[in-house]
Description:
By secondary structure, chain A is α/β, with parallel strands linked by helices. Chain A has a domain at 63-144: 2-Layer Sandwich (Nucleotidyltransferase, domain 5), CATH 3.30.420.270. In chain A, 35% of the residues lie in helices and 22% in strands. Chain A contains 3 helices and 6 strands, in the order αββββαβαβ. Chain A has helices at 17-37, 90-106, 122-135; strands spanning 41-47, 63-68, 74-76, 79-82, 111-116, 139-144. Chain A has a 5-stranded mixed beta sheet with strand order 4-3-2-5-6, covered by helices on one side. The N and C termini of chain A lie far apart (107 Å). By secondary structure, chain B is an alpha/beta fold. Chain B contains 3 helices and 6 strands. The longest helix of chain B has 20 residues, at 15-34. The N and C termini of chain B lie far apart (64 Å). Chains A and B meet through helix 1, strand 1 and helix 3 of A and helix 1, strand 1, helix 3 and strand 6 of B.
Amino acid sequence: MRRLVVDPNEGTVGFQIAPMIDVVFVIMLFFMVMAGAVKVERELNCQLPGTVETTKEVPFADEQVVQITARGDVLLNEEPLADAGDKVLQKLRDVLRRVKANCDAAKTPAVVVIASEPKAKHGRTMEVLDALAEVGITSVSFNVTEEE
Amino acid sequence: MAGGGGGDGDPEFQIAPMIDVLLVLLIFFMSITSSQVLKTEKLPLPVAPNALKRDIMRNEAIVNVKWDAAREKATYVLEGKNYSDLKQVAEQLKALKKQNASTPVKGPNPEYRVVIRGDREANALTINQVLNAAGEAGIADVSFAVYNREGE
């Protein structure tokens, strides 16, 4: 009767580099795609008003008042520029860009007051602040109107 | 004289440096993706694509404003503690500012600041009251935390 001889080294495979590279490629592709779509936390910075020396000259500037209603409508100097559904605020951005250009030409600071109704949403205020950041208006003050 | 270059035949494809480069790229993408996961409080922040990158080298106090839409009431979270009264928040901010005056600053800007991480549904009055609290504590530098985009 013949006996079957089994070689212990037969059938073992050495370290395969090609599948490892395949896997690394796939993982890298996953992270590359994720890196593009990732949501990052950022900041909109502002300075609270402090005291000004009375002997110091204070330049007077034209104030633009952006009103935000509780519904989410946005008005510039009482002129409606965006309703609650308008998230982009393109009209407001265009007008503010012109205001900024005029102020720069006249060498006066562009000052904006964001006057929100008490129940206006914080998210809406940030959308307006984002529009101001885009057009480069940095003098902004916040005001919450009294409830009627 | 020994000449440069030449060599015998075609150079072989080198697998080892390629793996090195791949692993470095992998670690890079892993780190920038996972760094976004290490966030403190999960809040639906507002979205502002034009906001600046967060300056993490500042001494700062982070005030989270959680909004309960059903009760129309805000809860303020400062240093892991919940507050419902803004007077306490102002006092705590004042204490933190004093405490940080002796702490060396990591970045170039030494001014202590408050970062307001407000729920996008919170009302303007609530956020304004937080601004007042910061003012009461003598902190003039205030930042609003936002997301750069919508999505998960």
